[in-house]
């Protein structure tokens, strides 16, 4: 089991930047990837960015080119940096540690952190 905590949220002006940190503890033996998701009001949770333990990254189209996901070598911290923020970036951002498991993957979620982008 992995325990995950997000930090760095808050209110950000349109066009501004954010920097989120995810701190994780536990057993990382079966760690496959780390990811950031977000859930906007009235919408489903969506994947924003993902990084595998091998360093391969993926970005959702709307954030590609203005976001960067990274992790420490020990994989106990994951960062998300975004710039040129838009109102549609508003939402609750969740950190996700994805672990290999029998029959598939297990997701270890943080509690989420609010990001509000406004004028």
Low-confidence stretches: none
The CA-CA distance between the termini, in Å, is 40 Å
Task: Please compute the radius of gyration using only Cα atoms.
Answer: 14 Å
Percent of residues in beta strands?
over 45%
- Quaternary organisation: single chain
Label the overall shape: globular
**Number of helical elements:** 0
Specify the biggest β-sheet. Answer: 7 strands, mixed
Helix content: under 10%
Average pLDDT works out at 97
User: What class would the helix/strand composition place it in?
Assistant: mainly beta
Give, in order, the helices and strands.
Answer: EEEEEEEEEEE
Task: Report the strand count.
Answer: 11
Q: What's the SSE blueprint?
A:
Blueprint: E1 2-7, E2 10-13, E3 18-26, E4 31-39, E5 46-52, E6 57-59, E7 67-71, E8 77-82, E9 91-101, E10 104-109, E11 113-118
Parallel strand pairs: 2-11
Antiparallel strand pairs: 1-3, 3-8, 4-5, 4-9, 5-6, 7-8, 9-10, 9-11
Can you put this structure into words, describing what you see?
The protein is mainly β. Helix content is 0%, strand content 61%. The chain has strands at 2-7, 10-13, 18-26, 31-39, 46-52, 57-59, 67-71, 77-82, 91-101, 104-109, 113-118. It is globular.
Write a brief caption for the model.
With 119 residues, the protein is mainly β. The protein has strands spanning 2-7, 10-13, 18-26, 31-39, 46-52, 57-59, 67-71, 77-82, 91-101, 104-109, 113-118.
């Amino acid at each position: 089991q992995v325990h995950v905590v997000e930090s760095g949220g808050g209110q950000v002006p349109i066009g501004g930047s954010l920097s989120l940190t995810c701190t994780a503890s536990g057993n990382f033996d079966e760690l496959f990837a780390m990811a950031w998701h977000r859930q906007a009001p009235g919408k489903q949770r969506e994947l924003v960015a993902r990084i595998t333990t091998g360093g391969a990254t993926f970005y959702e189209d709307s954030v590609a080119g203005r976001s960067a996901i990274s992790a420490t070598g020990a994989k106990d911290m994951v960062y998300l940096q975004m710039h040129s923020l838009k109102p549609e970036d508003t939402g609750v951002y969740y950190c996700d540690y994805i672990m290999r498991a029998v029959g598939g993957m297990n997701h270890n979620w943080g509690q989420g952190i609010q990001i509000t982008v406004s004028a």
